[in-house]
Design brief:
The structure is a single chain. With about 1100 residues, the chain is mainly β. It has eight domains: about 160 residues, Jelly Rolls (Sandwich); about 80 residues; about 290 residues, Tachylectin-2, Chain A (5 Propeller); about 140 residues, Jelly Rolls (Sandwich), CATH 2.60.120; about 60 residues, Immunoglobulin-like (Sandwich); about 80 residues, Sandwich (Immunoglobulin-like); about 90 residues, Immunoglobulin-like, CATH 2.60.40.1080; about 80 residues, no CATH class. Helix content is about 15%, strand content about 40%. It contains eight helices and 77 strands. Strands 2, 3, 4, 6, 8, 9, 12 and 15 form an eight-stranded antiparallel β-sheet that branches. α2 runs parallel beside α4, α6 packs antiparallel against α7 and α7 runs antiparallel to α8.
Amino acid sequence: MKRVFGILTAIILLTGMFSATPDVHAADTTIEGHGLLGEFFNCERNPDNREDINVFNFDDFRGESTVENLNGDSFIGIFNELIGKPDYNTARFTGTIVPEYTEDYTFYMEGDDGFRLWINGELVIDFWEQKWEIEQSSAPISLEAGKHYDIKVEYLQGWGGSWLRMGWESASQEREIVPESALYLPLDHIISTQKDELSGEIGKIDYLMENFADKVNEGALNNLNTVKLTTQELLDTIDDKAISDREKADLLIDATENASIARSDFMKEMGVTSSSVHDKFNNPLYQGQDPFVTYKDGFYYFVSSSNLDSNNKIYVSKSRTLTDQGEKVMVFDSQGTQTRIFAPEIFFFDGKWYIYYCADLEDYDYRHMATVLESVTDDPQGEYVNKGALYTGEDGQYKQANDFTVLDYNGQLYAIWGTLGSGEPIGPAIAPMDNPYTITADRSIIGGGGEGPRILQRDGKVFIVVSEGDYQSNDYRLSYLMNKDGDILNKDSWTRTNDVFLSTDDVSGPARASFVKSADGTEDWMMYHSRVYKDTERNWWRQVNIKEFGWNEDGTPDFGEPVSPYEWQDLPSGDLGQGDMYQAEDAIHYGDITKDDSHANYQGTGYINLPNKSGAEASFVVNAEEKGDYIVGVRYAYGVQVDGESTSNPTTQLPARAKVNVYVNGAHVKTITPDKTAISWEEWFTASERLALKEGKNVISYRIDNDSIGNVNLDYLTMYKADVPNQIAPTVPATDLAMDSHAQVNVGKTLQLNATVEPANYTNKIIWTSDNPDVAVVNSAGMVTGKAAGTTTIKATIDGHEVSCELTVLNPVNVSSLEIMGEHGDSEIRTKGGTLQLSANVLPENATEKSVTWTIEEGGKYASISETGLVTAKGKGTVVVKAASVSNPDITDTFEVKIIGLDSVTVTVDESTLVRNQTIDLELNGKNNKNATVDLTKATVNYVSSNENVITVENGKIIAHNTGTAEVYADVTLNGYSVQSNKLKITVTTNIKSIQQLIDQYVDAGEIGHPLAKKLSNRLNQAEHQLVKGHINQAIKKMNDFLKHLNNDAMNKFITDKAKEILNKDADALIKSWE
């Protein structure tokens, strides 16, 4: 569409009545080849006038592609694929059309942009204009049932939206889009295509016979060879057969199918492809936006609308597993009376299903209105009735709405939606519902903003989860509003929490979440979308993800972070998954299929690439336990990058899809159209279809034919029996209900009422109501909130049982004063990390609200305080604590807490110069931050020597070892506080006696021989003798003689190097002390 809002005017162009000429053919219902052949042409825009109609011609042919019918699907993908641009192109569609009735038919066409229609060579609709969404109709045309009539449609695409819709109507034929079954491709195209496909079948038969003959018995091999010979003969002679082209087409189609079936029979004889059980998954799951899921009677149901504004359809999918949407069924087609159908949601109320959504309605001049569908039966995939627009306004005036959901609370339904339009208040808006399809009350405004409201409930709390930010950007995220007291329509009863679910490096724009329980009811899961092209600035193409979430201690949801596509997740509890899993790399491969493992997130040993080349085929031989319908899914990646699709601000609403034909036992049964995945090729989607299988072995093939679009990676195939639900827990009704008959609560306060239900394993919910919500309201968990003084009756009902409680609501008694007190009269904390519990004595004793708030007024770096008044020490200092009344914050008191601890330590010694082997006691003293002496008896003390070769410290004593100087200090820890003492300088010297002791030790150890020891001792005695006389110089001389003997090379044999080194050192030190 070229615009978002506006009034569309339908112009009916009558061309005069005529009858089709008799040059027609009887339709043969056995002929395949339904659809129309599309030829696509490039045009050049007039740079001076973009509305110049003369530029739209059919001169520059760029390619062809078949289409099923003209149903409003976008052509932009085809234009991009064949021409390389979405705008300023033309297309021509040809084939034949076959009516069901012999009657006068009227044709209807509408598009974006112009078009022309010929029936059997006659121009019946001519709207060759660059205009859009203006319906045209033909004059009545006489057609005969079962006859083929030539049809030609020409189409021009200017800029913007690109689609075309063709319908018909007669006396017996209800107005509808002309279906694919009534359209046939041109015969020359069918014959040419079928020749190519038949030739391809022969090549595939040759491949099987050449490579797998040893895998089957002789009979199977002979049967396949016979089919090959018959097929080849037909292909060689078909052009010379004296039959009509339609009969030739019939023969070729039958032969192609017979050859395909014969191949399947041969592959069955080869045996079943090995399989495993699907037991894990990763995100994303499949393409989609605004996902909504619900669970009932063993199945998940997903609801969605088309990706295209022009499609105007709603679909419901059904699956036993949350990891795949399963079978997708269209349940509503507005036939153009509604556009932009956004964000549908599905609910089950009172035995019927209801689908709510917002759309531009023709009846409201294409304004965006809330709308509801009601199911005819209890089948969510069955027929629906359009109940029309819902009243979402004020004073009887209908207002626009943007995204619509329903809250079922205590048996009352509430509608919640986003507001829309200039001058409208910021939503969400809310209103009670009379029934599931009627609102008569005016809206109330909750406010706060956000779009896409979704409901989450737990333990009486109600959450409206909204999405915020630019939906095409990385900034799209979740926030929520919360209601605790059950006063749903009161905006003051809602609080807001922002930014609870945000983008990560791997997941962009996670929002629009819906919520559901796991299959067994034990886990909470959320389903949300994210952007496929996460590295772009703005791109709306989105994908569906799921994750389990939890709950915080305060009862609020903890959504965590979006799960990375590189993280494998276990199945939800009780979820049966997607059944048997057959790896694509183990399938039978035809054509130019390649195996690969270079992209991440596959299962098994790798994956295959199904190339964009006719003849490529991956065939899986699977086993069905019984005959019937199965849900068969294929996991794929299709990351082809195209400008205008995977880039910022895309020019196409729908990226071009692939197109893969699905065969079962050789017969074509489906065509799947894989959506574009991330350009990394490392994020995978699943496409599932309902397929009918025989008991035992079946061959399921994914094939690229002439009209296919390939280059798709396949990871695996899954299958499980359709329509078999998950295990359903039995319903246990209540047999008895009891509750206290009287209770009271103050205004503004809450009180939890408890109802006792028998038996304990009951399954239905208790419904709580208040007879007078002006006095007190009650939430769905039985929590009452006093609103005004008075009395009301609170009722609890379940399974036909009802009990009542008379509730009295009292006015509050105000606080007059408060005083802070320390536990046991204390006001000090003497341990780091220690605590002191404070309390507030609030007066009067009967005050309604006696709670207080606690804060640190001064000294916050020294301590913290909890909500309950518990002070925890962090450091030494003085802290001033303040308590304030909650009901009257002006009433306060303060209290001083002193945090005391070890602050300094001093180490002393009687003398600081020692000789070798001397010991001396260290004395340790400590003081706290109040300068008071501290008892260090229980302290942890660690003495440190800067040089343990000189001195060490043991048990508070210094031990001198060798001459030199070292520092000693103490690291002391007491009650969590650590202090380092001062440093003492200790000198270790020597004397004659000490040197003689060394010599004696070395003699005993065998390190000095007696001859040398005797000489050294003599010189020491002489030095000592001179020293006693006071002859220092003579003493020094004797010590030098000592050194000469010590260092005489002739004496080396009597002394070790170590002993020699130490004695030299001590003698030198002694001499220096005398000089």
